[in-house]
Write a structure and sequence with these properties.
- Strand 5 and strand 6 form a beta hairpin.
- By secondary structure, the chain is mainly beta.
- The protein is elongated, with a radius of gyration of 17 Å.
- The longest helix has 6 residues.
- It has a four-stranded antiparallel beta sheet, with no helix packed on it. Strands 1-2-3 form a three-stranded antiparallel beta sheet. Strands 8-9-10 form a three-stranded antiparallel beta sheet, with no helix packed on it.
- It is built from two helices and ten strands.
């Protein structure tokens, strides 16, 4: 196996429906001990509106209007089931309208419509936010 083949992430296909978000993992070579069907797992239940894989394919963000943005780290798990169990939810992201990874996948950008300032405040809350894709921490 070449070094290029060993460094590539497995092929993953994302399926969204009104009921759930599923990820299928398709292995490069079928195992003689298993059938040839792809392995799938339900990552999140409920309707989703936006999704994005990181440029490397190792992370996935999914927006669920009922919960906000969920961050799945697919690289730290040996299976999709482990990725689902270790998902992080980015705080106060239920109303976002756009999200994307940075070019190298280190950051997540979210945008939502501008809101009015809270009572007693002069500045509105930020509507363009930057998050760490490794920790899910709000940065700016």
């Amino acid at each position: 196996m070449s070094s290029i083949e060993s460094s590539c992430p497995p092929c993953r296909i994302l399926f969204r429906s009104k009921k759930m978000v599923e990820v299928y993992r398709v292995d490069d070579k079928p195992s003689p001990s298993t059938n040839d069907e792809p392995k799938s797992v339900t990552l999140a239940k409920g309707m989703s509106t936006i999704h994005s894989f990181s440029p490397s394919g190792s992370k996935l963000i999914v927006h669920l209007p009922s919960a906000g943005v969920k961050l799945f780290d697919l690289s730290k798990s040996s299976s999709n089931e482990e990725a689902s169990a270790s998902a992080m939810t980015l705080e106060n992201t239920k109303k976002i309208q756009f999200m994307s990874f940075s070019a190298q996948g280190s950051y997540i950008l979210t945008w939502e419509r501008a809101a009015k300032p809270a009572e007693g405040e002069t500045n509105p809350p930020p509507n363009l936010k930057i998050w760490s894709s490794s920790s899910g921490e709000y940065l700016h």
